[in-house]
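Request: Have a read of the protein record below and say how the chain folds.
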Amino acid sequence: MRIRALLLSTLLIAVPAQAQPTGVWGERGLATMPDARVGQEREVEIGTRLISLGNLPTALLGYGRFTLMNTDATLMYGIPGHAWPMLSLKHQLQRPTRENPTGVAIGLGMLGVPANAGIPGSNLFVTLTRDINTRRNGQDWTLFSAHLGFRTDLSLQSRLMGGLELPLGQHGSATAEWIGAQGSESGYTNFGLNLSPLPSLSLSLFSLGLPNASLFDRGLAIGASFTGVLPAWSGKTASVPTPAPTPLPTPAPSAKPSAENPASKTPSVKAPSVKALPSAPVSPPPPPKLPLPVAEVPSAKAPLAPIPIPSVPSVPSVPQESAPKPPAMPTGTLIGRAVDASGKAIADAKVMLTAPGAAERHARTTPSGYFTFAGLANGSYTVSLADAEGRAIATQTVTVAGAPIELTLKPQAMARLKGQVLDAQTGSALGGAAVAIGKERGETDRDGYFDLKGLPAAPWTVSVSAKGYAATSTKVTGGSPRIALSPLPGSVSGRILTTTGKPVAGAIAQIGSLRAPSDAKGNYLLSNVPAGTHTLTVIQDGKTLLTESLRLPPGGKAVKDAKVREAAPVGRFGMIGGQVRNVAGEALRGVKIVVEGKAVTILTVTDETGRFSVLDLLPGEYRLKLEKGTFADQEAKAQVQAGTLASVDVTMRSR
């Protein structure tokens, strides 16, 4: 009787919420198989089952289920052949979302109940739920849900479970499940039908199979349940207990003055002063009849609350002037629905509720798009609807003043941009490039195409980056832009060896106009090599020793070892190389350089990167003269040694 009283009292204070399929034993799921779903925070379900199972006597069961911190706790009494109440626990490890519609849960079922024909008994279970969805006309639809799991009893014997759930629009679902063999028991099948004639009311019918019995030898169970959400506990205790008003599914109309409601004409009533008490105690007149249950507040200084609000604290027979005013109790309820631009329900979407100085609250929309926030204190709240990436796509501000509030969250139509990213050098498509517009992020496919949705109105700044390419930002006003990225230069390195494996020092590795000598260990390094296919040439003392082809990816590093014949361990000649810049550090192209030695004069010009090199120089001292247009002439000296590079970097100043 105490359990029944507790369940009935819970039923009175819960705010109606969307009902969900529940199994025979009060757990969310199919007939006897739990699924991987749990209720929303503080959700409560009160229900009953009339069950006839095998040789067991027909029994009337009752149960209550409560959800807290992603965990369902179910208490059931009246199980056939078991005198004590049963407890089941289920914790959701992974919640299904639109992007990943797979849920995972673990739990302990029917604790303390011995196994019997068709009754699982104490068990440990793991379940997985996968929603099979489709998208039509911009709306997600669930075709069916597949369930898979296993259950282990106290003897560590396991049985597999599998099932299918077929939604019947917004008014229920049909289920079929298979419970596998366990020990000496054969497998069996169960069928179920859940209907919701009202959003918070669920009616259930189950056809139950029995172990080691034929398909037609079956049990039967019928039941009904109510689903609601308990108000949030504020953590404060009022000095005078105040009964909470019964929550309403729709906003209550404001009370209007009338002959049958004269109290509504009076905005406030002053509390009597202590000094004005009569000599004999007089009972206060009965409270006026109001549209909603009310009580009066003991306060000598503050007037009574206006009549139309849902609850007013009561006045004791002898008011006290020093009595403190009790704090406002949370009584408001917000009921909303999320729909898309075409008016269709948005299921399993995240809804956020925020208020100044209060913790953020979250809820998930039902398959019909509904959501509920209960136990709200009076004040202003912001309600936001988030998309799959957590971005707010619809927001409303509401004011709670005691009465339930209804609202609809409808996201505005958002812009969309499609385009392609290409290699600026080759014109080929770039797959895997990162594309961003504000907070929106995307990636190109293998053909270089990208598609960004949920954008504000144009124009946009499109930022694109890819490995090995210089990042770029482009302003776009619409259309299908083609954005080109320039490949970054890379490097080529390696060792120059003889066919016997000895290092060759002083050999020249050359790609185009880039040259680098090998050191005493035969190592060479060519930097700032453009991406693409190149020819690597190895030269020593004016003689070409090797020519090979190589490919360098954008921004890549290629390692190419070269084995040459008829190479001297150390070359007889050296080289001079370097770079010419202005005072701002910018490379100077086309600088005329005259290199003078004892018996040689050589003329060279810097390339587009300001670099130059002179090969096949005998060891000795050389003088360099640099000339370019408006820049003052410069001179430099270099000491050349056999098999080495004499590096000369020059800064030219304007005249």
Remarks:
- The longest strand covers residues 139-153.
- The two ends are 105 Å apart (CA to CA).
- The longest helix spans residues 2-13.
- The chain is about 0% helix and 45% strand.
